[in-house]
Sequence to fold (188 residues):
Amino acid sequence: MARAQWQAAVASLDPHALVFVDESGTPTAMTRTPARAPQGARAGGQVPRNRGKHLSLMAGLSSQGIQAEWVLEGAVDGDAFVVWLEPVLLPSLQPGQLVVLDNVGAHHRAEVPPWLERHHCRLRYLPSYAPDFNPIEHAFSKIKAVLKRLAARTKATLTHAIAQAIRTITPTDIQGWFQPCGYHLSYQ
Fold:
C-alpha cells in the first residue's frame, strides 16, 4: 500500500526538484572479484585479509548530479547526519526542492524538518524497504565499482578515489538511474 501511495504522490512532482539523500559504507579493502587472464593462465591480484578502515560517503543526488558529498570515518548515525546536513547539504539546496530520505533511524531527527523548511525545501521519506525508488543507490553502485578498480587501501587514497569516482557520473547515468525508479527526467 505504501509503495502505491508513493508512486501516486511522486507522479505529479517535477523530478528535477528531487534530491535523494543517502549514505554508503566504503571499506579500504574493496576489491574486484572477477579478473581476466590469458587462456590457461591464472589471473593474479591481491585481496587484503582484513576489511581495513571503514569510511562512509554521504551525498545527495539530483537531476544535476551528486551534491554535498562528505566522507567520514566510521558509520553514519543521527549525530553524524545532522553534522553533515546543516553545513553541507542545506547550502547546496535550492528553494522548492524536495529532499527524499529513506527510513533509516538516523534520518528521523527532530532538527531536520525545521531546517529544510527554513531553506524553503520540503521533506519526504521513501516507503520502508524501497531502495528501488531511490536512484542514489545506483550512483553508489557505480562509485563502488570504480573504487574496487582503483583499489585504494588507505583513508587518504580512498577519499581521493571517492572524489574520482563521483566525477565519472554523467547526465546519461543520472537519467538512466531516475527512469527505472519511476522519475522521468527530460532535459531541454
